[in-house]
Amino acid sequence: MQRRTLIQRSLAASSLLLAGAFAAMPAAAQGDWPTGKAITYLVPFPPGGNTDTLARVIAQPLSKALGTPVVIENKGGAGGSVGSALAARAPADGYTILGGTISSHAINVSLYSKLDYDPVKSFTPVAMLGSGPLVLVVPATSPYKTLADVLAASKAKASGGGLSSASPGNGTSNHMALALLGYQTGVKFTHVPYKGSGPAVQDVIGGQVDMMFDTALVVGPHIQSGKLRPIAVTSSRRLESLPDVPTIAEAGEKGFDMGSWQAVFAPAGTPKPIVDRLHAEIMKIVATPEVQARLKSFGMLPSSMTPAQLADFQKAEVAKWGQVIKAAGIKAE
Questions:
Q1: Whole-model pTM?
Q2: Is residue 21 exposed (0-12), middle (13-18) or buried (19+ Cβ within 10 Å)?
Q3: Which of 222, 217, 180 lies closest to 205, judged by CA?
Q4: Cβ–Cβ under 8 Å, residues 302 and 130
């Protein structure tokens, strides 16, 4: 009888040990991330744009650092909303990350009547890559040489809608820069949307449109060739590539600060140790001289925000652009 009791107790103890071992397995599995399974880097825009190019700059060294493949997958549509919705629904296991932007993670929530994700609640911020200021330009033949000239001329033409300003499309960061300038100064402008920056720039050069906001990558060559005149940049500090061009804040509109930012997000609920590892490795990559030079060649200012700082920044951006879009009455096409 005593022997049977001892055997039963021994079996019960063994069962408890096994149960404890199985319970600990998920934690161990998390600690082993990544296991060699490929990480999908979702880009919510077509190939060839800034978000796609940056993803490819980051993916190869990130794959090497983590010892696992990092595969780019482009899912464009609705200003980044289609791919962002896919990322929001992905498992929060560290094997899906997303290239989020000012459009997909700050502007779209106010621009579209229905969005299949929440830009804040559906994601965990991982890393800010950088912010690309826009440059306000006019044709080289334009009489406007300063921001004060532009504002005065647009006020004088207020009955006709003000000066015309081209953009690569409704709701783009270029359009939002114009809306912010109008919102902050109370000056009216007429927005002229195009299908892409290429045709928009050509019409500004030709004088069919008075001005436009675009990245230094797009307008820089035309500034160097003398076809466009830079008026001001939208960031809080000057661009290294255009050191003589003042910021809009320096030109008289204090507090104006706008950049077309690029960041990395993961689905909400992704374990903190995984987020911290991704952040650390991406920041190491961004800090390398090669990537710093590449970012600056895009006209971008590299960033060193922590995930917590990115979260606070993003919430402020959502609120800011919500106010601007509401005041301007902008809706997605």
A1: 0.81
A2: exposed
A3: 222
A4: yes
